[in-house]
Amino acid sequence: MNETVQLAKANNVLVGAHPSLPDKQGFGRREMKMEPDELAACFVYQVGALTGFLLAHGMKLNHIKPHGAVYGMTAREPALARAAVGVAKTFDVPFMGLAGTCHQAAAEELGVPFIAEWFADLDYNPEGKLIITKKHDPVPLSAVTDRVNRLLGERQVTTTAGFLPLAAGVSEVSICCHSDTPGAVEIAKTVKALMDKNNAQVPPQ
């Protein structure tokens, strides 16, 4: 964690906390039963550790985003969402999550700034719900390009059955690329190039 913060500072990269379930063996990608207060304590413990390293290097926490299985759990369970977003409120940072889910609803309820997120290297089911897997399969760059262009140009999310409109009230998104997806570096480069091209065409506010 200390080395990651140092690298982020050296490369002028903002740092967000990515707390997960207490599941080191499964890399946080296996669901487990937790009460809202237990989840909040688990998140505070992890985010607090990162915040300490950030302070040591003169940096600030930028946002909080749940990792792995708990990302999906908090997206669909209101009580868990409020617990997770409540931690972001405690640390006075935005909460990053899935638009149109309990993530966004809890952020609005608790008055926490919300950053809508979209995934370039994961699939969405026909209802527009993210398909979270324990292992990430390869994704062709052509598919990533098509997905990103459709999101940015048409404001549509690509699903396993077609396309759905982006959630209501969302004008901007943060695009996620997982580091353990095969070909992650090339995927990230492709996504950044497409985003830079799109953003260059957006008139300044």
TrEMBL record:
Q: Pfam families of this UniProt entry?
A: LamB_YcsF (PF03746)
Protein name per Swiss-Prot or TrEMBL: Lactam utilization protein lamB
The cross-references to InterPro entries, in alphabetical order and at most eight, read:
Glyco_hydro/deAcase_b/a-brl, LamB/YcsF/PxpA-like
Top-level taxonomic group:
Eukaryota
Per its UniProt record, what SUPFAM superfamilies does this chain match?
A: Glycoside hydrolase/deacetylase
Gene Ontology BP terms: carbohydrate metabolic process
